[in-house]
Every structure is written in C-alpha cells, then in structure tokens.
From TrEMBL:
Part of the Bam complex. The keyword Iron does not apply. Part of the outer membrane protein assembly complex, which is involved in assembly and insertion of beta-barrel proteins into the outer membrane. The keyword Lipoprotein applies. It is found in: Cell outer membrane. Residues 128-152 have a biased composition (Polar residues). Belongs to the BamE family. This is Outer membrane protein assembly factor BamE. It is a lipid-anchor. Keywords: Cell outer membrane, Lipoprotein, Membrane, Palmitate, Signal. Residues 103-152 are annotated as: Disordered. It comes from Halomonas rhizosphaerae. Residues 33-99 form the Outer membrane protein assembly factor BamE domain.
Length: 152
C-alpha cells in the first residue's frame, strides 16, 4: 500500500512540475497598425489634400523614405487560435493631392476588436476621473504649489 501511495504521490508531483503547458498557454489576439475599414476607404476621393487624408485615415503607418508621394496604411490581426488577417491601403500623391488608391486584403470584412475589459487588475488611474468643483458647480484646476484632489 505504501508503494502505491509513493507512486501516486510521485506521479502527481511530476505532473505539477511539468508546468502549465499541460493545460495550454493563454494566447490573445494581437492587432497591429492602422485599423482600415471600408467606410474610411470609400470616403477617400482623388484630389483630396494630405491633411484631409490624415483627418480621415489618421497618420500613415509607413511613408516611403525616399519618395514622400506614397503612404501605406497597414493593419494586421494575428488571431490567437486562428489565422492572420492583413489589410493594406496604399495612397499615392502627386504633389499635395491624392492621386491613387490601392487596396489589398479583405477590407470589406468586419473585424471584432478585443475589449480591454478582460481578466486581470485594472490599471491605476484608468477609472473615471473626478475633478474638484467649486460650490457653484464649476471645475477648479490646481494652481502652482497646490495639489489636486486625485493626488491626496
């Protein structure tokens, strides 16, 4: 009986030492780059200025280093337990005006973005901010040498 107990105990100990790889490793989706949607690309019109494009699409992920006439917006989603989805929109400018739009990947498909409300502790200071108020309801801002209510 003692021999059986030792064998069971040793087996359980070896299983515990083997680590979490027996149960699997936690993975999460890894989004990278500029999120490019079909609605954004449809609003692009040849002749738009660079600033109008930045206002609509955001700053480009890649600008050609030797030729500033090409901007690339790349979005890559590496799904934890699935494949990789990549979208790319290349914008070509002539001078300060948009001249060409090239699409790669399935831009029309919807992407479910991961929410950050998952497991784990919340980051300190990420909750709703409260501002000190005056008796008449106005918001006060700390002046030099004063501390705000949040830092107390």
């Amino acid at each position: 009986m003692q021999k059986l107990t030792r064998i069971v105990t040793l087996s359980v100990a070896l299983l515990m030492i083997s680590g979490c790889s027996y149960f699997g490793v936690y993975k999460r989706d890894l989004p990278q780059g500029n999120l490019v949607t079909e609605a954004m690309v449809e609003q692009l019109q040849p002749g738009m200025s660079r600033q109008q494009v930045v206002d609509l699409m955001g700053s480009p992920l890649l600008e050609a280093p030797f030729d500033a006439s090409q901007w690339d917006y790349v979005y890559r989603l590496d799904e934890a337990y699935g494949g990789v989805e990549q979208r790319r929109v290349t914008l070509t400018f002539q001078g300060e005006r948009l001249a060409g739009i090239e699409r790669e990947g399935n831009i029309s498909g919807d992407i479910q973005l991961p929410d950050d409300q998952g497991a784990g502790p919340s980051v300190e200071g990420s909750g709703p901010a409260t501002q000190p108020t005056t008796p008449d309801g106005g918001v006060t801002t700390p002046q030099g040498g004063e501390t705000s209510a949040d830092s107390l």
